[in-house]
Amino acid sequence: MNSTGQASTRDRSWRSRRLDPDHSLGLRLSLAAAAAVLVLVPFALLALLVLGAWPPLLRLDASVTDAFHGYAVHHPLWVRVMTVWTHAFGPGPLRVAAAVAVVWLLRRGAPRLAVWVVTTMLVGGLLGALLKLLVGRDRPDLLEPVARAAGYSFPSGHALNAALAAGVLLLLFLPFARDNRAGRIALWTAATLLTVVTGLSRIALGVHWTSDVVGGWVLGVATVAATTAAFATWRTGAGRRPARPLREGVEPELADPEDRHA
């Protein structure tokens, strides 16, 4: 056999091992863990800066809060819009939306995806609540508050849950738009707006520091990335082809029920 034939044989052998669950599962678990750690690093750094009351961060938080608060005091319509948005896309409504998605998935015959949605929302929510208690950061204390909120400040629960829900719904519905560029752009735009504007509303209303919101976003993205990587290892173990989550969602077969049951 010539060198070209040997190279082709080695390439086919490598691909077979890579797609073989017995050989690839450990590697993918390691990659999943590494991805989760890499995404969590910025959050851990930010949390340490908050705990250490790093002066540059405190000054940045204060300056942004002062700017937004000064605008809000003189623009009541802006306050009303932000108030409506923050309530409409708060943790409660977003969890209801996730629950509706779970019911839809169960009726569609996708119980593992339903478990993924529940796990992502639950793990992210519990981490956020625990970290609020551990960090114990106070919310902004303004002379003329335009809104009030109870509890600790870091990370922002609204920003966290917006990132979780946006990530989950995006990755669920991308399979239906994987061959439609305009559809993918629309889904990504909607997910980005939901995440960004919800976090912005908390700063605009003066109930969170900017670093609280950024912390919520990063933790939410880290949670979605970790659970998505874990779901990918299950797909590999079940003998399914690796998915491209950012283009076709966590389970491309969701849009084709016959392929999912094949």
Description of the molecule:
This protein is mainly α and 262 residues long. 76% of the residues lie in helices and 0% in strands. It has eleven helices and no strands. The protein has helices at 3-19, 21-51, 55-73, 76-88, 91-107, 111-135, 157-173, 181-204, 210-237, 245-248, 257-260. Mean pLDDT is 84; it is low at 3-25.
Q: Spans of 5+ residues with little confidence (pLDDT < 50)? A: 3-25
Helix percentage range: over 70%
Shape: globular
Summed up, the helix count is 11
Look at the structure and give the mean pLDDT.
Answer: 84
Largest sheet: none
Helix/sheet category: mainly alpha
What series of H and E elements makes up the topology? HHHHHHHHHHH
Measured by DSSP, the beta-strand proportion falls in under 5%
What is the CA–CA distance across the termini? 38 Å
Q: Give the oligomeric state.
A: single chain
Number of strands: 0
Question: For the CA atoms, what is the radius of gyration?
Answer: 22 Å
